[in-house]
Amino acid sequence: MTTTLQTPLASCATIEPRELGILAEAGFRTAGDILMHLPRRHEDRRRFDGFDSLSGGAPVCLRVRVTDTGWKFIPKMRYFQADVEDSRGIPGARLSLKWFHMPYVGKIIATGQELVIYGKPKKYGSSYSIVNPEFEIIEQESAGLRLAEASLGGSLPPAPAAAEAPAGIHMERIVPVYPSISGIPARRLRTIVHTVVHSLPDDLPSPGYDIAPQYPYAQALRDIHFPAETPLVRKARMRFALAECFEQQLRILWKRHHSRRTPGQITATTSHLVQELAESLPFSLTEAQKRCVREIYRDMKQPHPMNRLVQGDVGSGKTMVALCAMLLAVESGKQAVLMAPTQILAEQHYNNFRRILAPLDVRLSLRTSDRRDDSHIDIEGPDDGEPKIIVGTHALLYEKNAPGNLGLAVIDEQHKFGVEQREKLVRRGNAPDVLVMTATPIPRTLTLTLYGDLDVSLVDELPKGRGEITTVLRPRKALDKIQTFLREQIEAGRQIYIVSPLIEENDKRKTASATAEYDYWQQQFPDISVGLLHGRMSPEEKDAVMQQYRNNETAILVATTVVEVGVDVPNATVMIINNAESYGLSQLHQLRGRIGRGEHRSWCILLSDAKAGDDNRRKLDVMCSTINGFEIAEEDFKLRGPGDVLGTAQSGFGRVRFMEWLSDTRLIHRGRDMATAILETDPGLNLPQHAPLRDLIADDSAEPTTS
């Protein structure tokens, strides 16, 4: 039987029923499933590193012989240690392997064994250690090399009775190292993948649309799993990544094309209200804000719906741009809504709009989950019927709160909403214009990938008169000196934020909690008003706390990340972030954006005991070195990827296996050019050879086919 990507695993490899059950439970049922379980790295076991490479500070792959083993004890902990030497007998540095929290290792490693190990060495005095290295045990047998391996972080199941693969899969070649599957030893997994990938016919058709017929699909799969030479791994990855970029860009261009063919309503006729607003403000709009308003005005005059993203750094004035857009809709006789992710932010927008729009007599409404009934809706403006601007939370998605004449939908912090929620709001109107905003700046190299179906306006200028922000990293033990500084700030009339990652103490996490910090700071400053704000409080309680803080009736506000987005108190000049290492870079930058919103100099104090050299410390060092949100976002994307930074799993960006978000810019543009060429020659994708593309477009929630 010819193996295809749809062939059940039981039919293309010798696998025990127990193993088939484990693999099926993990989501691996077919040949295609297991072949998309990609190696996380390759080891060149033709040429091992030598002990002279230990001092380089980079991970090493060594072939070693165990000279001594034993359990070692330190306070409240024990670990298993194996002392090793170069298996070739070449004299070199002393190296110890240490396994913590892995008791099974002590049962399978013994003096005299040879190991293949992988890990990052650290120097202690004149010797080196590798903590929790990955390893395989090499046993010499008359039948040839046999490897009994152990993977990091799991107990070893019994060896399968099924036929083992030849030793050439595991040694004397470039060897793939896979993410572990609980219950399947790494060597066994490697054997299964090797059997499956080499059972594919050379002429295996590419799934979906074949973007690289000159590089056969089956060969690319073999190269990415078991390459003959290291460069073939990159070549295969580039082939599959280009396919992902192409499919992604085709979806984006198709959506953009059909959006522009959808008849809409002209929601901007004149701009008198915007001009009146600008004249009534006590400040001038920045040139960046004016440019963005002009771009929006141009879009809203078109007969098709606007789909535009406004992005900019924290405090750059995106909300004012959105308000101008809403006034354009109002002037054309339409309603505009702004949906915010939290009640605190929605109420802040509403209160600010009410103050700013007072001279214009524009009727406003606030609609949140706590205020759905008309009797509880706070209405401002002349009593001439329906409200013109509606500000709310996800409560806007309910039928009772739906606007009757929607012309513009503004979605603030759009990545905090799911795709279905955004689309549900848009469906409340007849093809309304859509404006989405984000204060998590997207690196320019990614805008095409993540928002290619939107036009993008960039607010790349901060309003004048903002105070300088200084960011410093301090250990927790420095609190005494910090307290003196805080009192100086409070006596000068300024206010303080103190942010903690948890609401209450947790025995499992040695992390500062908001409630414990609230008690602590009340004790330290008994003569100063301290407030507490967190997500479990009722809307009324949150309102009261925030109003006291805005009125400077509270000098210190202890909070969780509920203050992360949109909270605007210009008098707040200090933010202390407890356990700063537990946040992502973009979230830290968002939190820091709550200060420096007035004319006074501000300070962000990151409290952390992160050690120099580790990833957490490097992240915090970035925060201290720049206040540029785009630079911070780019570093955050490198560290965590868009999925974690933007919540892409629920935000419609889809999963990619091969594409590297920041480094594959050229592939993204190439994929877009390929998709553009196809749509220009066949806009409806009606040609027979484009049938797979029609299927792809029909199911735009599908994962990449990696053609």
UniProtKB/TrEMBL annotation:
PROSITE patterns reported for this sequence: HELICASE_ATP_BIND_1, HELICASE_CTER
Keyword flag Transmembrane: no
Transport found in the keyword field: no
CDD domains: DEXHc_RecG, RecG_wedge_OBF
Entry keywords, A to Z: ATP-binding, DNA damage, DNA repair, DNA-binding, Helicase, Hydrolase, Nucleotide-binding
Helicase C-terminal domain ranges (all copies): 478-638
Gene Ontology MF term list: ATP binding; DNA binding; DNA helicase activity; hydrolase activity
GO biological process: DNA repair
Domain Helicase ATP-binding: 299-459
Pfam families linked: DEAD, Helicase_C, RecG_dom3_C, RecG_wedge
InterPro entries in the record: DEAD/DEAH_box_helicase_dom, Helicase_ATP-bd, Helicase_C-like, NA-bd_OB-fold, P-loop_NTPase, RecG/Mfd, RecG_dom3_C, RecG_wedge
Protein name, entry field: Probable DNA 3'-5' helicase RecG
